[in-house]
Design goal:
By secondary structure, the chain is α/β, with parallel strands linked by helices. Strand 6, helix 6 and strand 7 form a beta-alpha-beta unit.
Length: 301
């Protein structure tokens, strides 16, 4: 679908109004974070009722993969679960891609275990570091090595792949360095794979965005971190630390200014960010963030 949308774009598939009163049409191409994808997909689904002729496609190559495509001029919107890195911004600059960052929602990065796990409902940041640190590879292999009161159950690890902003955020927050993690875990850019892995192993543990917890509450559950459970309230008030974070979209300025269907979709997305976040089970923007998003959108015009 993304390839088809790119072909349409390359062929000038960016009509404005059809001229016959039928409204806007044309493609809007988004790629990037698998965490942010359900948010943008929710916006696309709702917007389809407003402008059915606008075709919004959302791919999930991870935040890093999304920025690679975005800075190559292949997409209109890049979904991101972290801010753009200096080297990524430099790549965009080298290719003449000017962009605007817009904060769209908040997310608690949840640590999840098998729903049948009855011993690890609360973990400390220190324990999470013991489980996930690079030096734990091949050494910390059973839950009773994390805490003697835990059973001698094998630890089976699942999580985001290296192209994911979730991977960058989790490793920095828990292991103190972006990218630092034991190699003997099962990585994937698709959070549904992590759900399947954790739900299929009693000793399974993984990490991903909070929205996936509510969607899969029958097979996995989130743990409290240092006694705080990830919720809308704890993410917004900052008490769920260090795993609370904002989520972004990056908009190509040229797409916004030259493709009316992109402008219309982005305007709708930002102006309805709170209701879209609630519909997609994300943590909505705070009042200050709503003002910030409006300012960021205004800068595009």
């Amino acid at each position: 679908a993304v390839a088809a949308a790119l072909v349409l774009s390359a062929c000038g598939g960016q009509p404005t109004d059809s001229g016959d009163g039928e409204g806007l049409s044309g493609p809007v191409v988004a790629d990037g974070s698998s965490t942010v994808a359900p948010l943008t997909e929710a916006a696309a689904d709702i917007y389809r009722d407003v402008e059915p002729g606008v075709n919004v496609t959302v791919a999930t190559s991870g935040t890093g993969g999304g920025f690679a495509a975005f800075c190559a001029g292949e997409t209109d919107i890049s979904n991101a679960s972290r801010p753009i890195k200096d080297e990524e911004a430099a790549e965009c600059d080298a290719n003449g891609i000017e962009f605007t960052e817009i904060v769209m929602a908040n997310d608690g990065l949840a640590v999840v275990i098998n729903v049948e796990n009855d011993w690890a409902d609360d973990l400390t940041v220190e324990q999470l570091n013991t489980i996930w640190a690079p030096e734990s590879e091949g050494v910390i292999t059973s839950w009773n090595q994390v805490d003697p009161s835990f059973p001698d159950e094998p630890i089976v690890l699942f999580g985001a792949g290296t192209d994911s902003g979730t991977f960058d955020y989790f490793t920095a927050a828990i292991n103190g360095e972006e990218g630092a993690i034991r190699a003997d875990y099962s990585p994937s850019e698709d959070d549904n794979i992590t759900v399947q892995g954790v739900s299929g192993a009693l000793g399974g543990i993984g990490f991903f965005g909070l929205s996936y917890v509510e969607e899969n509450a029958d097979v996995i559950k989130a743990v409290t971190v240092d006694g705080v459970y990830p919720t809308v309230e704890t993410v917004q008030d900052g008490s769920y630390t260090p795993l609370g974070r904002p989520l972004f979209i990056y908009v190509a300025n040229a797409s916004y200014l030259e493709k009316p269907q992109v402008k219309a979709f982005v305007d709708y997305y930002v102006e309805n960010a709170v209701s879209i976040a609630e519909a997609a089970l994300f943590v909505p923007l705070t009042a200050d963030q709503i003002t910030l998003a409006a300012d960021e959108l205004a800068s595009l015009g």
